[in-house]
Design goal:
Layout: E1 9-11, E2 15-17, H1 21-29, E3 35-42, H2 46-58, E4 65-72, E5 84-86, E6 95-97, E7 103-104, H3 108-116, E8 121-122, H4 125-133, E9 139-142, E10 147-151, H5 155-164, H6 170-185, H7 196-202, H8 206-209, H9 213-220, H10 224-239, H11 248-255, E11 261-264, H12 269-279, E12 282-284, E13 289-298, E14 304-312, E15 317-320, E16 322-325, H13 329-332, E17 348-360, E18 375-378, E19 396-402, E20 408-414, H14 420-426, E21 427-442, E22 457-458, E23 468-470
Parallel strand pairs: 3-4, 3-16, 4-12, 9-18, 16-23
Antiparallel strand pairs: 1-2, 5-6, 7-11, 8-11, 9-10, 13-14, 14-15, 17-20, 17-21, 18-19, 19-20, 22-23
Bound molecules: 2-acetamido-2-deoxy-beta-D-glucopyranose (3 copies).
One 2-acetamido-2-deoxy-beta-D-glucopyranose (NAG) binds at residues 294-296, 338, 460, 464.
């Protein structure tokens, strides 16, 4: 078995890096007795569950190296920010995604996972059909006073229409295509990366990351109005952030939605539950890890080996051969790590999701119910002078479902918590309001010249052989 080729970089919704150099050494020593390695995975979201899955693929349970994984998740469910809630708390009314609601077709791993797992994918066209049957516009770009752009069909389909009708400048299209193509080629490589800077270099993405999307698009000669009214709509819809705050790669990734988006009918979290289930990992829900400490043990050959003690709030501690930290360090709540990690922290963008069942008040937008867009994206910088506080009160306002009783189910994303007084302006009545705030994405700000990415392997010094694996190392390079 050639293990080095299995040291892969797996790209899912997150990037998981699987290290196996330390395992290889043992394989060479003894071929007959299986080596059993234990891995603690902290965080049961996209990164954690897919790490468990890929580990079990690379090291199958009957192989000569066997990996037993344990996923620690502080919430009562797997999936992280890929989670769905029942409308009005009633599953018979259907579910609505609270976080990651779509994935792009370019995400080969998720596309394949849904196929292999037999999960039904949807292109989200049922609402579109309903909307067009009612002759209502789909996307509306709202500047606080009027709609500066409208397009029929659902939001993501409108993004597609921009490509289809050639509304997107050719210069941007070809650049975007080329950038995504290079990324797609990563799926065909089988070598891993220890640092994101190596990935950036191999993809020739430096110039996409070191300046704002605004500056980049200007340099590319893209019409300013097109950038502000259309391209920014995609970044606000995707990352809730504006072109002047994002690096150029973020706008390229956001516009990839124009090439097809998907969702799992029964909820995207099913992919991650399935990753975890198939990995046969032990799953410890509602278990918060508070500390990770390294210890040195002596193996049967008398060699010193580094192992890790994972301590949880319930006072329990377990020893593992490897640790994968699959949650942002900043919000992990882990107060002790074996190594200093200050430089690994990245700022995150606070996003508030508000779900409402009720009747929207079209007069807020100066419209009637018949001609009010079902997906409203507000304009961002610099088109903010028509908003009360010089800032849009929400990023997106989207109707997701029409209920039999005539109510709409609406999802609103905003950068601050939406107060009842504001919701009372947007709705004539509300029978259900659900709020959730979280640090959903890294701030995808430009990366300064001297700024370094954390390593995928956190260790005390470069010379150290062991360390803990950190999936969040790719923040703020990309957030898929
Ligand atoms: C997928 O869709 C088919 C047809 O609607 C249905 O019979 C089946 O139960 C669905 N499978 C899952 C996993 O939801
Ligand atoms: C960005 O990176 C490119 C490519 O390495 C380089 O030519 C350019 O000078 C950099 N710009 C800034 C502002 O650092
Ligand atoms: C923990 O790791 C550090 C850095 O590699 C090392 O210096 C230290 O001796 C280790 N501690 C134990 C108890 O093994």
């Amino acid at each position: 078995m050639k293990l080095s080729s299995t040291c892969i970089l797996a790209i899912t919704t997150a990037v998981s890096l699987i290290r196996c150099d330390s395992f290889q050494q043992h394989v060479l020593q003894d071929k007959d007795i299986p080596i059993v390695k234990s891995v603690a995975i902290i965080g049961g979201g996209a990164a954690g569950t897919s790490t468990a899955f890929w580990l079990s693929n690379v090291f199958p349970h009957e192989g000569s190296v066997q990996v037993t994984s344990t996923i620690f998740e502080r919430n009562s469910y797997l999936g992280g920010r890929s989670t769905a809630v029942p409308i009005k708390g009633d599953y018979s009314l259907g579910i609505i995604e609270l976080g990651a609601s779509i994935f792009v077709e370019a995400n080969k791993n998720l596309m394949k996972a849904t196929e292999v797992f037999g999960l039904n994918r949807t292109k989200l066209t049922s609402l579109e059909e309903e909307v067009s049957a009612k002759n209502r516009p789909g996307l509306g770009v709202w500047n606080g006073q009027n709609f500066v752009f409208e397009e029929s069909g659902s939001y993501w389909d409108s993004m597609k229409a921009l490509w289809r009708y050639g509304l997107t400048p050719f210069k941007f299209q070809s650049k975007q295509k080329e950038v995504v193509k290079r990324f797609m080629d990563l799926y065909d490589t089988d070598h891993g990366f220890e640092h994101i800077s190596e990935v950036v270099k191999s993809l020739e993405y430096q110039s996409l990351l070191n300046m704002t999307a605004e500056a980049y698009l200007k340099e590319l000669g893209i019409n300013e109005r097109f950038s502000q009214e259309i391209l920014q709509t995609a970044t606000r819809g995707n990352y809730c952030q504006d072109l002047n705050a994002l690096h150029a790669l973020a706008v390229m990734v956001s516009m990839e939605a124009g090439h097809g988006t998907w969702a799992v009918e029964s909820g995207n979290y099913n992919i991650f539950e399935e990753f975890a289930r198939r990995s046969q990992a032990a799953i410890q829900l509602q278990t918060k890890v508070v500390a990770i400490n390294n210890i040195t043990e002596v193996d049967t050959n008398g060699n010193a080996v580094q192992r890790y003690v994972v301590e949880t709030t319930n006072g329990a501690s377990q020893v593992f051969d490897e640790v994968v930290l699959a949650t942002p360090i900043k919000f992990s709540g882990i107060h002790a790590l074996p190594f200093p990690t200050r430089q690994e922290e990245r700022p995150y963008h606070a996003v508030y999701v508000t779900l409402v069942a009720g009747n929207p008040d079209p007069s807020y937008f100066g419209r009637t119910l018949e001609n009010m867009p079902t997906f409203v994206v507000s304009t961002g910088a610099p088109l903010v002078d028509k908003f009360e506080d010089g800032q849009a009160p929400f990023n997106t306002f989207s109707v997701h479902r029409f209920l039999e009783n005539g109510e709409s189910v609406v999802k609103i994303f905003s950068s601050q918590e939406l107060k009842d007084e504001f919701l009372d302006k947007l709705f004539l009545d509300r029978s259900w309001t659900f709020r959730k705030g979280w640090h959903a994405f890294p701030k995808l700000e430009p990366i300064a010249k001297d700024q370094t990415f954390p390593s995928f392997i956190l260790k005390a010094s470069e010379e150290d052989e062991s360390g803990i694996i950190y999936t969040g190392a790719f923040e703020n390079f990309i957030s898929l």
